[in-house]
Design goal:
Blueprint: H1 6-29, E1 61-63, E2 69-71, E3 75-76, H2 86-95, E4 99-101, H3 109-119, E5 127-132, H4 145-156, E6 163-166, H5 173-188, E7 195-198, H6 202-211, E8 218-222, H7 237-243, E9 247-251, H8 267-276, H9 280-290, E10 294-295, H10 302-309, H11 318-332, H12 348-355, E11 370-373, H13 376-379, H14 392-401, E12 407-411, E13 424-426, E14 434-443
Parallel strand pairs: 3-4, 4-5, 5-6, 6-7, 7-8, 8-9, 9-10
Antiparallel strand pairs: 1-2, 11-14, 12-13, 12-14
Helix pairs in contact: 2-3, 2-10, 3-4, 8-9
Length: about 450
């Protein structure tokens, strides 16, 4: 039941809700379970941002591959249709936002352009990002792409944008390349100072990077506590983007779609928010920043716009970050698979392993994986995500639980100084492990 068909989704949701309703008295009668977050070596997994309350929104910035600075905290305008966008953008600029995100498809570029003009903030102080919506989505012929972009600039009241992105990559590889070539021409003309992609996966980025003369500098994807990076996660798009020097920005950080639990009501989040004395929304956006992902919160209310701007006067500890990371594992994992590929902070793999028959060593695997490892050149293009803080036994079990995992390796104890950040899961391997003292490695599945 990984991907239920739409016709059955309503029946499945009703049945699941009834099951939870029937279980509620039993669950409420049980005492709370206290889980201790296991300690682990600190190896710089999280990003550091100012927390002194004195740094401006303009100065807390990413550096794009073009060398341009992009404020990490921007103001989003999705669903601020037409005239509804003017006043919120004015408020955002008054509060101090200097990064405004819009799109052709939002139908609000004229109001945003007018708000920028009326604000009195110099154009050069604002990072303005917009998207090509109709052509990549097949709603307009590609021959109109240049005219549409020219019209967008006129609506925004500017002769350039700091970032121009595809709203959604076309599924047709030929159209994808054609649209990108046209976007490159805007870059070469100086009318788009950086290029990017929205709503993409790793495959889309790989295709673009293969043919692009001007590579993308930016990715904008759904990034929420339950789905950090993609709507249907397959491979960690954020980790891939960072490895390829692309800045990542997340949208809809606090939305519940497609889940039932509203993130702002999650008891784990509420507890952490109470502990740090901040609102749940502020904690979610700070968590996103410390994951190395920019944010573009949207609101039509001045008090919310101000609230979401106050992210640089507190920080979350590593333990808090790991607990929040773990909510995706609680949300996405099933009985036979732990998802996404990240630290299993709540120990779901251990619980699953204890309740299921133990997997016997694969005939391909090593009886003794100690002092074995793989040349990095053989695995670097096949890693299934960032390293996980796991011991050798749990690293192997995690690989066995993940159908895409062909092999694994980890050094023990974890030692960043030795070039090992934890457990590496490998999707394809054609090289047998070699002797490397202090490492553990094994091949568990035959190469595809």
């Amino acid at each position: 039941m990984q991907m239920p068909i739409v016709a059955q989704l309503a029946d499945i949701a009703i049945a699941a809700r009834q099951l939870l309703t029937d279980l509620r008295p039993h669950l409420q009668a049980r005492p709370p379970v206290v889980l201790m977050v296991p300690t682990r070596p600190h190896f710089g997994r999280y990003w550091t941002w100012p927390a002194d309350g004195r740094t401006s929104l303009r100065d807390a910035a990413f550096t794009l591959r073009t060398g341009a600075k992009m404020p990490a905290i921007g103001f989003g305008t999705w669903r601020l249709w037409a005239k509804d966008a003017y006043q919120p953008v004015r408020w955002a600029l008054e509060v101090g936002y200097r990064h405004i995100d819009t799109a052709e498809g939002y139908a609000n570029e004229a109001e945003i352009g007018r708000a920028i003009l009326d604000s009195g903030v110099p154009r050069g102080e604002i990072f303005l990002a917009t998207k090509a919506s109709s052509v990549p989505k097949g709603l307009a012929d590609i021959s109109y792409a240049s005219d549409i972009f020219t019209f967008q600039l006129a609506q925004l009241g500017t002769d350039y944008v700091d970032l121009y992105m595809m709203h959604t990559p076309p599924s047709d590889p030929q159209l994808l390349q054609q649209v990108w070539r046209i976007m490159e021409s805007f870059y070469e003309q100086g009318r788009a100072r950086a290029l990017g992609v929205s709503n993409c996966d790793v495959r889309d980025l790989q295709q673009i990077l293969e043919f692009a003369t001007v590579p993308p500098a930016y990715v904008q994807n759904l990034f929420k506590i339950y789905k950090p990076g993609e709507q249907i996660p397959v491979e960690d798009v954020v980790a891939f983007a960072h490895r390829n020097h692309l800045v990542v920005v997340g949208y809809s950080v606090q939305t519940e779609w497609p889940h039932i639990m509203v993130p702002l009501q999650d008891p784990h989040l509420l507890t952490i928010a109470s502990h740090v004395g901040r609102t749940p929304s502020q904690v979610l956006h700070r968590w996103t920043l410390q994951r190395g992902v920019g944010v573009i919160p949207k609101s039509a209310k001045r008090e919310r716009i101000l609230e979401n701007s106050r992210l640089l006067d507190f920080e979350l500890t590593d333990e808090m970050m790991r607990l929040l990371d773990g909510l995706a594992t609680l949300s996405e994992s099933g009985a036979s698979e732990i998802k996404p590929l990240q630290e299993d902070v709540f120990g779901l793999a251990r619980v699953s392993a204890e309740s299921a028959p133990q997997v016997k060593p694969n005939s391909l695997g090593l009886e003794d994986p100690r002092d074995k490892g793989f040349p990095y050149a053989a695995i670097r293009d096949h890693l299934l995500g960032d390293p996980l803080a796991l011991d050798p036994d749990m690293c192997r079990q995690t690989c066995l639980n993940e159908p895409r995992c062909a092999a694994w390796e980890v050094c023990a104890p974890i030692s960043p100084e030795a070039g090992c950040g934890g457990c590496y899961l490998i999707g394809h391997i054609s090289t047998p492990p070699m002797r490397i003292p202090g490492w553990h490695a094994a091949v568990e599945r035959s190469p595809a």
